[in-house]
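seq:
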Amino acid sequence: LTPNVRLKLYDAGHILGSAVIVLEASEGERLTRAAYTGDLGRTGTPLLPDPEYIKDEVDILLMESTYGNRTHQPIPEAITKLIEIVNRVYRRGGKIIVPTFSLGRTQELVYVLHQLTDQGKIPRLPIYVDSPLATNLTDVFTRHPETYDEEAWQDFGKKGDLPLAFRNLTYTVSREESKALNTKPGPFMVLSASGMCEAGRILHHLINCLDDERNVILITGFQAQHTLGRRLLEGEKRVRIFGSSFQVKAGVEVLNEFSAHADAPALQDYAAHVPGLKRIFLVHGESTQATALKQQLIARHHQWQVDIPAIGQTFEL
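struct:
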């Protein structure tokens, strides 16, 4: 960047193009390296490579703490649960409404659903990705197969197949296509943004599906405090959308294992692999998650100084 400042990137395994940053600054004979994980992905998720360990000696690590007090179940267990949910809702003619983030979560779920359909573990029900942004981002994924992990090559590439396209999958683009789903009878599945149910087409799907107990709202990722997704996750029986109140009769299922964020054991493991680490700042997490992770890190590494910065707080490095 300058004669005294250098930048190095490692794959964060979170979403397409995500990176862990290592920043090196020299002042006279003093050399300082600081790293920032950004959002750190999970090991073993499909499509993208696993997070890459930092190989340089680093003094300071800024690390996310989204799931600092949570342990994800293994992904195969989540897939088993997904199979059960899809088959159960399909048999009763219901709809599966999946709030998804347009980048990362949508593509991961499409990949898994493609696998399960080909393997005959779920019926070939209609699946719709109803998000123009998700559709555009999926096109970016499709144009860059060099970013896929080895698993994607083994599952689809060797057969000349596309992981993010199959015959019962439809990417809706127009408003008219999206509206048509409101009156379409089940069974079918819709993946739609936004992932926390705060905006976008997902709100219309919820309005049309919440009051039918045959349907399921499938939560597959982090839901921040005070969001509609969080209220559904916490079991509220009546929610407000566009100023109107709606009764929640549909089932709500949770599959956090598809989260693109590392859990507490993975975060601890990542920090433990950083050579020369002396100090950690925990960021990007609710206070309960960050505090629990801080306690776990200090218990295992007494030599580390671990801080949770407050908004506006400054530190001298």
